[in-house]
Amino acid sequence: MSEVARFLADLDSISNEATAKFSGLNADQINFKPSADSWSVGQCFEHLILTNDQITGAVERVADGSHVNSFWENWSPFTSFFGNFLIKSMKRDDKKFKVPSKSIVPPSNVDPQIVAKFIENNAMLIDLFGKIDSVDPEKIVITSPFMGLVTYKLAHGMTIIVEHERRHLRQAERVTIIDGFPS
């Protein structure tokens, strides 16, 4: 199984998990915030959609053959460092991170259909990444859509997406087991 195929299977699995755990939540449950500085279940999903939408441009360029590594993408001595750092960061739930861009901060009140929208967004990603199954994601380097000096291999980018989605699914699940969560 190719690296891209594994990534697609991971996204499908995450979509299935999100459907099973969160698709039955009502508007009050989707928008319940445990505290003023915490995100609701809906905000976790909205953030994932907003974040995933930022990377699609780079992947579209890979898919249509127009992506060419920039000078910095070819020569940055930090490419593997940044990719591995971000992957490790996404796997840890004990540290809260500040979002790197206001464009991916979700609104306070989220559409109750956000889980279905997240599933649609993942289906779009699956379709898009399915178009690049023949490329070697270890040889393609992309620049972070949030920090222009940060580069990582496309393979790392795919893992970052999966681990980021898993991280926020775990966060959303923790919200649902907090005392005071609406029934």
Key features of this structure:
183 residues; mainly alpha; two-stranded antiparallel ribbon; 2 strands
**What characteristic shape results from the CA principal axes?**
globular
Cα-based radius of gyration, to the nearest Å: 17 Å
Low-confidence stretches: none
Tell me the span between the first and last alpha carbons: 42 Å
CATH architecture: Up-down Bundle
> Order of strands side by side in the largest beta sheet?
1-2
Here the CATH topology equals Four Helix Bundle (Hemerythrin (Met), subunit A)
Q: Output mean pLDDT.
A: 91
Described by strand count, sense and barrel closure, the largest sheet is: 2 strands, antiparallel
Q: Which CATH top level class fits?
A: Mainly Alpha
Encode the helix/strand succession as letters: HHHHHHEEH
Helix content: 55-70%
Number of strand elements: 2
Structural class: mainly alpha
The total tally of domains equals 1
- In the CATH hierarchy, what is the superfamily? dinb family like domain
Put simply, the count of helices is 7
Percent range for β-strand residues: under 5%
